[in-house]
Specification:
Largest sheet of chain B: 5 strands, mixed
Number of helices of chain B: 1
Number of strands of chain B: 7
Oligomer: heterodimer
Strand content of chain B: 35-45%
Strand order of the largest sheet of chain B: 2-1-7-4-5
Distance between the termini of chain B: 38 Å
Number of helices of chain A: 9
Shape of chain B: globular
Number of strands of chain A: 10
Largest sheet of chain A: 5 strands, parallel
Largest interface: A-B, 38 and 27 residues
Helix content of chain B: 10-25%
Chain lengths: 260, 67
């Protein structure tokens, strides 16, 4: 059965998107990403270290842009202007690459998104020809507005970035999923494999995570677990779970033919 | 001339530099970078032709690990 993730007219086999931050070294980054099976990987855009770069290996040496779909992000941006500038630089850096992850933060302690600035940045970026996957709060109205602006995917948080608290409001996520005509991906907050499976069972089109893998005791092992969890959750969603029957038990074995 | 690169003042003996020459001086040739000059993106195709002037502000960025 072919069940592909489609984002902005391109299809992907993997529904797990992973970040490339917080790993011990580039070798571990690469091993974890291979184990995750992810095709889309996020990267941050930062000032180059002038004078310290000669011969120093770079992320791109370990994760060639030809092998993966890069998703440059705006992590650390607190205004629409900074986010737009960052992604215009990313587009130049990656030879005209249009697929980006927009996130505009509102508070350094919670890293909660500033949706006013995010909406403003999304408008500018869509007008400028970017395919915008947007990190957002789990507010169904905001998610709809981002869709109407022309974003190609909405990515509500499951819980705070890097918190590993899992899916705190499945009801809101479900409302967003039911109302959306574009892919909904959970971004941020996943802590372990069951969280990813739950997100997929709710009907998310994919899950984006970084810390849940990178901060695990064994990141490469966790990356494999996440791959399976996303696949299992997706299949369970497609299979359609049995209805919950709170007070009526139903035996799986025949009720007749029992010995005297 | 003096340029502001990634938020820091830097003095150069040269009175005139193209963006490509600056990239070379900073030993960044061949690295995958993107440059913003006074708030505007400099396309790589224009590195040779755009001349920097005293007081210019540049941002030079690359891709790093992130989530």
């Amino acid at each position: 059965m072919s069940d592909l993730l489609k984002i902005a007219d391109k299809t992907y086999r993997s529904r797990l998107l992973v970040g490339t931050g917080k790993y011990k070294d580039f070798t571990e980054t690469r091993a974890a990403i291979d184990a995750s099976g992810a095709e889309i990987i996020t990267v941050a855009i930062r000032r180059t270290n002038i004078g310290q770069t000669v011969g120093e290996p770079s992320l791109l040496d370990y994760l060639p842009p030809e092998e993966f779909t890069y998703l440059p992000n705006t992590a650390g941006c607190y205004s629409a202007d900074d986010a737009v500038r960052t992604l215009r630089l990313a587009r130049e850096l990656l030879d005209g690459h249009k697929l980006v992850k927009l996130e505009v933060l509102g508070d350094p302690n919670t890293l909660y998104p500033n949706m006013t600035e995010t909406l403003a940045a999304a408008k500018t970026l869509v007008k400028d020809g970017f395919d915008v996957m947007v990190y957002c709060s789990d507010d169904p109205i905001i998610a709809k507005q981002l869709e109407e602006i022309g974003c190609c995917a909405v990515m509500p948080l499951a819980s705070l970035i890097g918190s590993g608290m899992g899916i705190l409001n499945p009801w809101n996520l479900q409302i967003i999923i039911e109302n959306a005509k574009i892919p909904v991906l959970v971004d941020a907050g996943v802590g372990t494999a069951s969280d990813a499976a739950i997100a997929m069972e709710l009907g998310c089109q994919g899950v984006l995570m970084n810390t849940a893998i990178a901060a695990a005791k064994h990141p490469v092992l966790m990356a494999g677990a996440m791959k399976k969890a996303v696949e299992a959750g997706r299949e369970a969603y497609l299979a359609g779970r049995m209805p919950r029957k709170l007070y009526s038990a139903s035996p799986s074995s025949p009720t007749t033919g029992l010995i005297a | 001339m003096q340029l502001t690169i990634n938020g820091k003042f830097r003095d150069f003996q040269e009175s005139s530099l193209s963006v490509a020459e600056l990239v070379n001086v900073l030993t960044l040739t061949g690295k995958r970078i993107a440059i913003e000059l006074n708030g505007e993106i400099v396309p790589r195709s224009q590195f040779e032709t755009i001349q920097l002037m005293d007081g210019d502000k540049l941002e030079i960025v690359g891709a790093v690990g992130g989530g």
